[in-house]
Structures are given as structure tokens and as C-alpha cells.
Amino acid sequence: MALKKLVAGNWKMHGLSADLAEVKAIADASRNFPAVDVALCVPAILIERAARAVPGFAIGGQDVHHQEQGAHTGNISAAMLLDAGAVLTIVGHSERRDAQRESDAEVKAKAEAGLTAGLQVILCVGESLAVREAGSAVETVLAQLDGSLPGSLGGKTELAIAYEPIWAIGTGRVPTSRDIAEMHAAIRARLVERFGEDGAGLRILYGGSVKPSNANEIFGIPNVDGALVGGASLKAADFMPIVEAAADGPGSF
Ligand code: 13P
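^ thats the input. predicted complex w/ 1,3-dihydroxyacetonephosphate below
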């Protein structure tokens, strides 16, 4: 099944007021590619201004707390993201799994909190270089997925999985097309096993050093339904060719 591609930018800890011009440039240019869903996950403090600057364009957060409210200094709830104008959020990014010691169980709770509140959720999984070299990338990522997937989808397909090999993030290194195809097929099979027909409708994004120069090839791989883009999403000049590649690719309609 060909799914509409989603190309989401993850700005990580980049972006000040002055960069809202870049958000606007990306949102404006994205209107030329209605066959692709485009989104930007900006730092939390920029969400409200970004959402106001580009009505109708999908602005997201990069994390969400699993509880609705409470004594959680520094954290942000799903209701707060929505209130600020976000329509989606990333959960379980490897940088948070590592630096914030987020477990699969926490990521699962975050995904459930986001979906329950009505956010679209991009749930990240991915193996380390040591695991890849040991030949156990697929089983490791599937185990991560088993621990992180929400208990149910409630008949909706607002969940996307982002396969982001840790060793490919910000390094310029990308797995072979064969390895990406193998992983995405394994993730797809697991999603269908877990969620039946709904699992076939969930988008599986690839992330890790996606650039204008490799986007075409990546989007041509079966079960690659979009991309989660870090560094190359900060400037419209780098990001839009990636969106364009997704629009040209075989899966889009
Ligand atoms: P890069 O595109 O900079 O490698 O980052 C990928 C990523 O971590 C997106 O979430």
C-alpha cells in the first residue's frame, strides 16, 4: 500500500526568533507539494510563535510528558503542546533515550499520552553501531518497538515510526538501501502483527543523515513512507529538495 509520505524536520536545540523566517519559508514552499505531508518539530518555546506564523502548517514538539499535569518541573504535557498550536510530537528520540535515560516503558507512556490527547506521534527507534556490527540490529529494534508501541491505536493511524540508526544521526553515514529495506519490512510486519490492518496504514520514516543528495534513493525503498530530518531541516534551501524528492517518489499520490 502506498502511503502519503511525511517529511518532518526535527530542529532539536536549534532555533531563535530570527529563525521563524525559515519556518515561514518552509511552510510557504511546502504548499507546492500537496502530495507530501510536511511538518517541523521546533523547540517548545518556539511552537506557539511558529504555529501563529504559519496557520495550517504542521508544527510539532520534540517530546511530551506522559502525565496530563502535575509536579514535573520543566516538562510539557500533550494538552500544553496542543494549546500552543502543535499538532504532532516526537517521542523516544535516541538523544532523549540516551541523555534523559528514557526507557521503552516511558516512551510507550508518552506515545499513549500524545495519541490520547489528539496529537500525531512520531515514535523513534534505532540501534547503536555496536549492535549493527554485531548483526543484531533487526532483533534489537523490534524489541525496542515491542516495548515502546502504544497498547492500542483506537482505530487511528496518527502514529508514525521513525527508524533512526544512532550511528547515522548527524554523521553523514547512512545504512545501505538493503539494510533500510530489511529494517522497514521487519517493522512493517511487526506493526501488522500488533495492529492488524491499521498497522499497514502507519507510516515508517527513515531518519539519519537524510540530505538532498540521498533523499531520492531513500524514498525509493519499499516501506519508507517519509523521513525525519535533523540538520538538513534547518534551512529551506536544504529541506525543500528533500520534500520535493518525496513528492516525486513512487509511493506518493
Ligand atoms: P540528522 O538528519 O542531522 O542526521 O538527524 C537525524 C535525526 O536525529 C532526526 O530526528
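The first strand starts at residue 5 and ends at 10.
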